[in-house]
Amino acid sequence: MGKKNKAAKRLARYRAEARQEALDREIISKQTAEALYKLCLPILPEYIDDSQECDLVGREIVFKMGITAWNLAVTGRQLRIDSVFQQARLSPDEQRMIRQEIIELVDRKNRQYPELRFTIEDFQLVPEAGSVNLTVRLGQEMPPPAVPGMFLLTSEPEIVSPASTPGIPETLRSRRKAKGLSQIKLAEVLGVSVKKISAWEHGKSVPTAEEQKKLDAFI
């Protein structure tokens, strides 16, 4: 009888520990999702266009970049950008811009969330009442890197870009960022909407001749 009681107590303890571990992981998962969202928030306006409906595609691009940066910061491993955007057709300029965005995100993650050490395996975006709920699936918990901030992004082969509006999206965005301007600030200066700036940078529309003159004069 004594042995059965001990076995039952041991089983109950194991189950309690498993429940607590699952609860702890769920809490960390929510913390990580919130941190990832805040990490990507500054660049979201540059990639999304909600003028027609909630732009899930633009958000997916941003959070893929965020997860790439997150895992680089956590693991310090080598990673190719083209392995993250296998279905995308990126021009060399777009590759360079995304590379720089990821480098900046890595630095921000290391500064703002050094205590969160789990990798992120996947994420899900679910529209909810006019907003989007972000959840993540955690991977392994990693020890702090021997040399903080060390990571490597290898260069990608040149990939042909779709020619919807040749040159305009990447040129405009690179010139704007070189001036240190947000889309909001540039829109205010030019007297146009942020959605219009976003549409230009996504190749969904092009500036009129008058708008192009203003752009050339300012940036």
TrEMBL record:
Alphabetized PROSITE patterns for the sequence: HTH_CROC1
Domain HTH cro/C1-type per the UniProt entry, residue ranges: 172-215
Molecular function as annotated in GO: DNA binding
Any Pfam family: HTH_3
Protein name in UniProt: Helix-turn-helix transcriptional regulator
